[in-house]
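HUMAN: Mind making up another protein with tokenized structure?

ASSISTANT:
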Amino acid sequence: MAFRLVTHQVARRGGLLSAREIFSKTAQSAFSVSARKMENVRIETDTFGELKVPADRYYGAQTMRSVLNFPIGGPSERMPEPIIKAMGVLKKAAALVNKEYGLDGRVADAISQAADDVISGKLYEEGHFPLVIWQTGSGTQTNMNVNEVISNRAIEILGGKLGSKDPVHPNDHVNKSQSSNDTFPTAIHVAVARELVENLKPGIQTLHDALNAKAKEFHDIIKIGRTHTMDAVPLTLGQEFSGYVQQLKFALDRIDAVLPRVYMLALGGTAVGTGLNTRVGFAEKTAAKIAELTRLPFVSAPNKFEALAARDAMVEVSGCLNTIATSIMKIANDIRFLGSGPRCGLGELMLPENEPGSSIMPGKVNPTQCESITMICAQVMGNSVAVTVGGSNGHFELNVFKPLIASNVLRSIRLLADGSRTFTSNCVNGIEANKDRIAQIMNESLMLVTALNPHIGYDKAAKIAKTAHKEGTTLKESALKLGYLTEQQFAEWVRPQDMLGPK
């Protein structure tokens, strides 16, 4: 609606505006409406001049300028909350370390207290971080958004006037010994590490444990195997599920394998990696402080030029997530196909019935949990492509695809973690084996003939199978008709329970 109004005004004047001007005016118009509703604004300044900002918001002119310049996507495209919380952690750490290097203790403590409000998520929920992902590729505007919020909140704590930048300045104090070029990649690593350890690993562990319980439960159920989606030799349902269990064990191992690079922080590299405007030891001290605050083993990156110019660690994480998605896709597809039916499919598994499956076919129930998590896996695979493209675009001393990379990696982690828990509780835990159907299918399979290879040879065994298939008879009937063995020999040699492993 706002866009149409602006377009109409432009047409009425007979003037021509660029798309950027139209969108900027739309955003300013929307802000003006909001401001009128609040009937309360204040003036903040940056190096470009003055801007009106909502009086009830802690952010300042640079944040407001970004709101006007990048009205893209709306609230759903906001910078992810884990990034903002991680920024709060590193700003607190920097303030505490800067205090050791001479920053006024009163200012440092106020910054630390204000940062706590960021870390808690309270200020994110209240709307003090409105910026979207689609901004400068370095994350500069989000860094300044955090600086301004913490500055004004600290000023408020100290009894000062919002917007005055006194006694706490967003650049000189909150951003002291920092640059957007080292703070934003640090925030990415802190956020991703926490989400991997606190969210994804527990989610994958939950799914792993549920599948492992099913593998044990199905230990003695012998079924027919399938390769190329065609009948193969027998195995147990427990053995089949054990493969899924191992895939998720490897998933946990893969997460652990990428974490050491994620724990390496860029903070202290400042603009290009040289550490200009920091003090000797600042990088190591802030990394140690972040480790203390998060209880994760963060360290200062060994080479700050790599830490700023490349996002290889995030590409590696994304590759790990892509592999996990691939594993879960295979597992979920197997489960849904094994549960297909209930009468005209494979029907070896009985899946929980969670909701009606059709608006026209009464009684139909679909494998919706499998469908949900396989869609999640497809999304994670797509996210990985975006991260790969972003990671490959580190130009000279700085990668400028960082918000894209961060948002896609964090989204993938969240989707896989939530999806794993939901798939476990609403599907895997309730899976039952349809023993009668499993036995029926296995006994009808022609591939049991493989057990005869050591006794009568491959060619005669193949002849038995082909004849049985052609004439619609059983393997036993075909073998006896061809005269290759006796009924007693068939009973002794073709025993599914003896075909489950090496002799």
Observations:
- Confidence is low (pLDDT under 50) at residues 1-20, 33-38.
- The chain is about 60% helix and 5% strand.
- The beta strands are 41-46, 49-54, 222-227, 230-236, 264-265, 299-300, 349-350, 394-395, 398-399, 432-433.
